[in-house]
Input
Amino acid sequence: MTQPNVYQVADWNGSSGERWVANQVRLDHMLAIFGVAAIDAAAPLPGERVLDIGCGAGATSLTLAARVRPNGQVLGVDISAPLIDRAWEMAPAGAALEYRLADASTAPLPVHGFDLLFSRFGVMFFDDPAAAFAHMRHALVPGGRLAFVCWRTASENDWVRLPMGAIRDLLPPSPAPDPEAPGPFSFGDRDRIARILAEAGFTDIAIAPFDAVIPFGQGETREAALDDAVEMAFEVGPLSRALKDQPGDIRDAAAMAVREAFAGRPGETSVLIDGAAWIVTARNPS
Output
């Protein structure tokens, strides 16, 4: 039987994991508002046990641990060894917090071991999402909660739309990706999310749009912020993959085009771009 999520495990323990760690401060700054919104929707309570799925470098795990004090516990799991290592580096001594290198879709989880399943952009990568959510649901207490944030479509998110649009005339057209293939935008369709969660056995499914202006790149001046935004786009996301094997002249032209695209957005110490996500909540039947 083929092990699930093989590509994702390899990628997040290779180039994607390494790039995320290298850009962790910038990325967590960019994603912070989405994590806050999802945690508010999850409404963790003191004493609760929480599973943070795809916890990355642990930013949301730390916030969740603070919310469930004094007697709660948070377990953060991720398939990326580089990110789990970074999460342990950032964990304060004495926090009610543990990290584990594991795939939440298949890892042994305690039956009824958690009051809350949570994720910030960590659940869109499963080969078989319905089976993954069914497996994780069994770790919830009866009546336990699920809450996560996921991206809407690529066309609604400037961190993809702007740089990829800027290089459209520099590269040969590529086939349109399968919108349901594992990846950051595989949950862009609200109906698909509802279908997956219902098939996995969840009830009280609610899916709400969440839009935010988010900082992309950082710098002490406007010019430095633009330079950093271009560098970040080249290092993380679809632009980095599209330009991976391109010659220097194409990459130079792409950098100029991407910078021009970002220059059309406001911001002084960061480029302020539009982000679009879903906040999803559901329950395990009682």
Q: What stands out?
A: Strands lie at 49-53, 73-78, 97-101, 114-120, 140-151, 203-216, 271-283. The mean pLDDT is 94. The longest strand covers residues 203-216. Residues 24-42 form the longest helix (19 residues).
